[in-house]
Amino acid sequence: MRGFGFIVAAAALATTACAVAPPADPDAAFRAYADQFVREALAFYPEFAVQVGEYRYAEQVTVPDAAWQARELAFLDRHAGRLERFDPATLEPLLRADHGQVDNFLKAQRWRRTTLREWEWNPALPDYNPANVLDVILSTDYAPLEQRLRTVSARLARVPDLYEAAHANIRRPTHEHTLLAIQQHRGALALLGDELTAKAAGSGLSDAEKERFRGRMQAARAAIEGYVAWLTELEPSLTPDYARGFRLGRELYEQKFAYDIQSGLTIEQLFERAKAHRQRLHRDMEARARKLWPKYFGRKPAPKDRRELIAQVIEKVSAQHSKPERFVDDVRAQIPQLDRFVREKDLVDQDPSKPLIVRETPPFSPTRGVAIASIDAPGPFNPGAPTYYNVNPMSDFSPERQQSFLREYNDRMLQILNIHEAVPGHYTQLLHSNRSPSLIKSLLASGPMIEGWAVYSERMMLENGWGNDEPELWLMLDKFQLRTTCNTILDYSVHVLGMSEEEALELLTEEAFQTETEARGKWRRVQLTSVQLTSYFAGFTEIYEFREAQKQALGAAFSLKDFHNRFLSYGSVPVKTIQELMAPTAPAKPAERAERY
Ligand code: ZN
């Protein structure tokens, strides 16, 4: 509980200091409050702080027992009370957006704690797994090794308490999350193994510190083993009539969707749009496949069945791909081309002073061997660091896996991937959002806006002539977008409409052209997560519809570049917030000056 007394004291002081009439300068007052909120939230959630690169509280461990939960609710209520004193309408647009994000965060956290209550039914909740944060501390070079080992030692000391809280909290878990927890906590044992023992033994810690480290490691390992044993024993009793089902159900799903997606659409509306979009994509794909058929199959008659036709042409296009040893270079060569195209077509502002560095995914990265490519951007507490585009080198894959990866990320799909991850997708969006730095927008960023922008930019680039309207490229774009579209259909159907495993696999393989392996992986993911799978399509649809509406409203005055620049200028906030801020009643331009909390 170290440090907690300080937070309460600071909070009490602040409450009395601010209990006066509306501030003369609401923007300045809100900025001061936002600053305070960030400081207190990082101190209250030290694990979150470590994940975003703030290590000041890294020795503190959250043990989510009943007493801590009561303190969390008090923390949330206190801030809700303080936030209420600001009228968002009086704040300048960027601050109004921050106000909305803090408000949503406070409400969502309270809802998770009191209504969703995942801490009672998900033994795989990250809150119960000490390995995640220990891994970050051990693999990030933010301080000398000895200092980090002392932090690890301090955290290890609380591991038994953590598992005691988990044991007391969990009541009727789902079978699926229990199996995942057994697997993940066995993985945690691997982290607290011989390698770490050797690291501590060979370090500059004093003998007494080393001794303490060893003792804490042993106790931590015993606690993890106890948890795994308990869950393993519990597992057979988790039959369908006893265990909690993994499906969220309509009421919880709709609430979670509202907090996590922050969409202007209801989930029912989004679901209808996803189904309509799937139909459009299928029609599109059929037309393109028909056009391509003679090129790849000559005079052979095309199949009558639409699915069969599309699948066979996809097969041929997928066979045109890079080589394992050339893959990273191929990605690297394409970024300047995308850059030039965006500039020549005047699509959105870029910043040549902040180049993107393409590199092989480093061995220590959690995405090595998992994701094909990802953007590794500096966190809000390390803004000067370069942005990397990590590309998996494939050298650690088996030949079969290499082939399947290369077919999936064939010559056409690779272009779409680079648009999505780099230009003008994630990397370009990030450059824009960094122009008006706000810790709140970084810490409480909107996933659907970020992913929606990347997906939107794929289609936008092709619409503007990237690839010269090549049918192969369009076919791959449609396939790629069918994935996010069907993810939305799948998530809602499974969690609310009761879709079975068989139906889910059929949807993914028959309608989204996914392989059996990919479909099985997705079925597993939809059992373990909810709502998150809808975020890509939700963001995409809202951005696309918003752009079309602006085009309609502005007629000849509409400029695609202006629309993009303005849209991105508000940072990573929900699309519906950007819509409100860009509406005619809002000031014509967001504040030019850079805000720094
Ligand atoms: Zn993405």
Features:
597 residues, 3 strands, 2% strand, disordered C terminus, disordered N terminus, 27 helices, globular, three-stranded mixed sheet, binds zinc ion, mainly alpha
Largest sheet: 3 strands, mixed
Q: Could you list the spans in which at least 5 consecutive residues all have pLDDT below 50?
A: 1-19, 585-597
> What is the averaged pLDDT score?
91
Strand content: under 5%
From the alpha carbons, calculate the radius of gyration and give it in angstroms: 25 Å
Helical content (DSSP H or I, runs of 4+): 55-70%
How many helical elements?
Answer: 27
What is the helix/strand order?
HHHHHHHHHHHHHHHHEEEHHHHHHHHHHH
Report the span from N to C terminus: 27 Å
Q: What is the tally of beta strands?
A: 3
Detailed description of the structure:
The chain has 597 residues and is mainly α. Among the domains are: 26-246, no CATH class; 260-264 and 316-322 and 400-581, no CATH class. The protein has 27 helices and three strands. The longest helix has 31 residues, at 267-297. Zinc ion binds at residues 420, 426, 451, 454. Zinc ion (ZN) binds next to helix 21.
State the gist of this model.
The chain has 597 residues and is mostly helical. Helix content is 64%, strand content 2%. Among the domains are: 26-246, no CATH class; 260-264 and 316-322 and 400-581, no CATH class.
